[in-house]
TrEMBL record:
Top-rank lineage group of the source organism: Bacteria
NCBIfam families from the UniProt entry: lysS_bact (TIGR00499), PRK00484.1 (NF001756)
Main location: cytoplasm
Residues that bind Mg(2+) 2: 428
Gene3D superfamilies: Bira Bifunctional Protein, Domain 2, Nucleic acid-binding proteins
Name of encoding gene: lysS
Name of the protein in question: Lysine--tRNA ligase
Length: 507
């Protein structure tokens, strides 16, 4: 007889087997309800008298020598993830929400024949079970509770997947609750995300920023070039837009005197979904009066490096595939036009004729974007020539003017704006601006965007008169940035976007 918790290899149950198991488990549920007493509480008691948690017991007694007894009685509850019933002694592994486990040993001598038989007949994998008894270490050194009392805390009527096997990615995202039960990485990612958000807020607090919330339902979309989701408000009998960005409202806050402001919340964009894009995603935006795109780049680097330290203990992070990636040090700052010219082997500037850009794109096999304009084609060519070669975290500086309607023109270089995109792990992680605060120029930019929209560009912005009215009351020089929280998790963990979102949208 042995108390090992190593499982035999088991295949995933078929649909027919699941149906049969559910029927058996439902019968056990009925039995528990029929036999309910005040002490037992049936299949779903309102509470059980726990005195400890599994993680706390592991921390306190994790170093017990094999065969040691403590004389301490503890009462805990956990999910049964392994069970073996043999004669006069049964074993089960109980798992807490954080994935830590303790072994429950149910013996004839300790609980009596009736209770032992009930355990064998009623307890299944996946059940939440309460146990009480002495904390010991088994002969094989497994931290255990020698059970003197037990009861069902919650009866599972569907079987778990094999907790020692691998769920497919599709199964993981469609049934995240199962993923959290059976896979350490899933739980660790949830914890990592919480640590990242806490770190971001702590860094902002250290710089005297104020966190606010802005509307998710808006009368018109703005703040980014993206296709919105449209809904209808019955109370107002009006179409509304799920926000694509909080930018225009956060800038109103700066106009109102909240000089350092940020928001972490959801954005919605009615566009494609792939390994780096989700229609619904978490976004951080921040604005600092009397700063510019250089100052906000410094702040962004600090935010990300602090978040990495909060998760990994260091700016050197280890991705899911085992790759180490360095987020520390001072990050490179690269001119978009200069780097494109060097990679393409020819000088490209804001004055380069559009037809020459088209010819270069066609020669390189770069698809022309719909409603192509000069700046958009420059960006597409940069992504073709330069982006694949970026390895270190890099701020790509000084973008074309005509693709950046909310950004201030460069103070010394004609035809570009003071904007950067931050690339980490081969994808855009964040973007930052010296914000355009001149209401006259901003109105002109909105008019040009409206012309693009009239020609069929679904991502173009509309004229936002309320935002312009706010600007007309005076907005100080400001630096602003936006960063995807899901992508920040991707940069730190090496996972895809659907793995970093707890419950991603799936069809």
């Amino acid at each position: 007889m042995t108390d090992t918790t190593s499982p035999a290899e088991t295949a995933e149950p078929t649909e027919e087997e699941v149906f049969e198991q559910k029927a058996v488990r439902l019968a056990k549920r009925e039995r528990l309800i029929a036999e309910r007493t005040d002490a037992a509480g049936g299949a779903y008691p309102v509470s059980v008298p726990i005195t400890d948690t599994i993680p706390a017991l592991r921390e306190r007694y994790g170093d017990l020598e094999a065969g040691a007894e403590t004389g301490v009685t503890a009462s805990v509850a956990g999910r049964v993830v392994f069970s073996r019933n043999t004669g006069k002694l049964c074993f089960a592994s109980l798992q807490a929400g954080d994935g830590s486990r303790i072994q429950a040993m149910v013996s004839l001598a300790a609980v009596g024949e009736e209770s032992l038989q009930a355990w064998k007949e009623l307890v299944d994998l996946g059940d939440h079970v309460f146990v009480s008894g002495e904390v010991i270490s088994s002969r094989r050194g497994e931290l255990s509770i020698m059970v003197s009392d037990w009861r069902i805390a919650s009866k599972a009527v569907l079987p778990l997947p094999n907790v020692y096997g691998e769920l497919s990615e599709e199964s993981r995202v469609r049934s995240r609750f199962l993923d959290l039960i059976v896979r350490d990485r899933a739980r660790e990612t949830v914890v990592a995300r919480a640590k990242v958000n806490a770190s971001l807020r702590a860094t902002f607090a250290g710089h005297d920023f104020i966190e606010v919330e802005t509307p998710m339902l808006q009368v018109q979309h703005g703040g980014a070039s993206a296709r919105p989701f449209i809904t209808h408000a019955n109370a107002f009998d009006a179409d509304l837009y799920l926000r694509i960005a909080p930018e225009l409202f956060l800038k109103r806050a700066v106009v109102g005197g909240i000089d350092r402001v940020f928001e972490i919340n959801r954005n919605f964009r009615n566009e494609g979904a792939d390994s780096t894009h989700s229609p619904e995603f978490a976004m951080l935006e921040a604005y600092q009066a009397y700063s510019d795109y250089n100052g906000i780049a410094d702040l962004t680097q600090e935010l990300i490096q602090n978040a990495a330290i909060a998760v990994a203990g260091s700016t050197t992070v280890t991705w899911a595939d085992g790759t180490e990636y360095e987020l520390g040090g001072q990050w490179d700052r690269l001119s978009m036009y200069e780097s494109l010219s060097e990679a393409a082997g020819r000088i490209i500037t804001p004055e380069t004729p559009f037809h020459e850009l088209v010819a270069l794109a066609e020669a390189e096999g770069v698809d022309l974007p719909p409603h192509a304009i000069h700046g958009k084609l420059v960006e597409e060519l940069w992504e073709h020539f330069v982006k694949p070669g970026l390895t270190r975290p890099t701020f790509v500086m000084d973008f074309p003017l005509d693709t950046s309607p909310l950004v201030r023109e460069h103070r010394s270089i004609a035809g570009v704006v003071e904007k950067w995109d931050l690339y980490v792990r081969g994808f855009e992680l964040a973007t930052g601006y010296s914000e355009l605060v001149d209401p006259v120029i901003q109105r002109e930019r909105f008019v040009e965007q409206a012309k693009l929209a009239a020609r069929g560009d679904l991502e173009a912005m509309r004229i936002d008169d309320e935002f312009l009215r706010a600007l007309e009351h005076g907005m100080p020089p400001t630096g602003g940035m936006g960063m995807g929280i899901d992508r920040l998790l991707m940069a730190i963990t090496g996972l895809g976007i659907r793995e970093t979102i707890l419950f991603p949208l799936v069809k």
